[in-house]
Amino acid sequence: MTSRRSFLIAGSALALGGGLTTRLVRPATATETFPVTLSDSVWRQRLAPTQYHILREEGTEPPYSSPLNAEHRTGTFACAGCGHKLFSSAAKFDSRTGWPSFWEPLPGAVGERTDTSFGMVRTEVHCARCGSHLGHVFDDGPQPTGLRYCMNGLALLFAPGQA
């Protein structure tokens, strides 16, 4: 059975051309400074092309494409760009949206800014250490926060162990 949310997500992905979507926006570090600042050429060497697109060009991976959706072990999710710890596995939940989702980041781990791309207003989430784009946060998550940090799996690294 297909839910309305799954249908809308799949339709949006198809409408955007499938695969990774492209946005004509400024890089995450254009107007802000972060403790980790690398040149564009170093980011390109450090990241796979799909990761570079998501983390540095604010792209989005296709829904249901990340193995981290099925990651249920105890551990920590970190930024794929700089290794900064972002989310505890204790805050992960199945949002049924196709992207790894969390109800709360670790203290001071992420930053947020307004994203007006695609004709809508959303809250973009980035790594507080390097400015890499991670995903977006919405107010339709579970308690205790009511938030859904909807992250790109390619923007994250998982380290099993203590959360």
Description:
There is one protein chain. Strand 1 (75-79) and strand 2 form a beta hairpin. The strands form 2 sheets. This protein has a 6-stranded antiparallel beta sheet. It has a 3-stranded antiparallel beta sheet with strand order 2-1-9, with no helix packed on it. It has a single domain, classed as Beta Complex (Metal Binding Protein, Guanine Nucleotide Exchange Factor, Chain A). With 163 residues, the protein is an alpha+beta fold. Mean pLDDT is 86; it is low at 6-29. The protein has helices at 4-15, 40-46, 49-57, and strands spanning 75-79, 85-88, 92-93, 101-102, 110-115, 122-127, 133-138, 148-151, 156-160. The longest helix has 12 residues, at 4-15. 17% of the residues lie in helices and 25% in strands. It is globular and about 40 Å long. It contains 3 helices and 9 strands; from the N terminus they run αααβββββββββ.
Residues in β-strands, percent = 15-25%
**Quantity of strands, as a count:** 9
Mean pLDDT: 86
**Percent helix:** 10-25%
CATH class: Mainly Beta
Strand pairing plus helix content: what structural class? alpha+beta
How many helical stretches? 3
Examine the coordinates and then state which fold CATH places here, giving the name of the CATH topology: Metal Binding Protein, Guanine Nucleotide Exchange Factor, Chain A
Low-confidence stretches: 6-29
Distance between the termini: 34 Å
Shape, principal axes of CA atoms: globular
Question: What string, H for helix and E for strand, traces the elements in order?
Answer: HHHEEEEEEEEE
Q: What is the count of distinct domains?
A: 1
Radius of gyration: 15 Å
Summarize the biggest pleated sheet.
6 strands, antiparallel
CATH architecture: Beta Complex
As an assembly, this protein is single chain
Query: CATH superfamily, please?
Result: Peptide methionine sulfoxide reductase
Strand order of the largest sheet: 3-4-8-7-6-5
